[in-house]
Write a structure and sequence with these properties.
Elements lengths: L1 H17 L8 H16 L5 H16 L2
Length: 65
């Protein structure tokens, strides 16, 4: 129990930093979107609707799993 109490604040702080929401996207979401943009360029995907669909479907999947 003592270890859990000691580590809990560090875990809470970690998630607060990762999932921090302000006027911009949370850093994790921005990283994921940047990854999709990079993958599209790398694989020659030039249709912006495809990348938009990748991003949209990623969040639909996360919401229902």
């Amino acid at each position: 129990m003592l270890v859990q109490c000691t580590l809990q604040q560090y875990v809470d702080d970690l998630f607060a930093v990762i999932l921090h929401v302000d006027a911009s996207l949370p850093p994790v979401v921005k990283y994921l979107f940047d990854y999709f943009d990079t993958a599209a360029r790398l694989h020659g995907v030039s249709d912006p609707e495809v990348v938009h669909t990748w991003k949209t479907n990623r969040f639909i999947h996360l919401d229902y799993t």
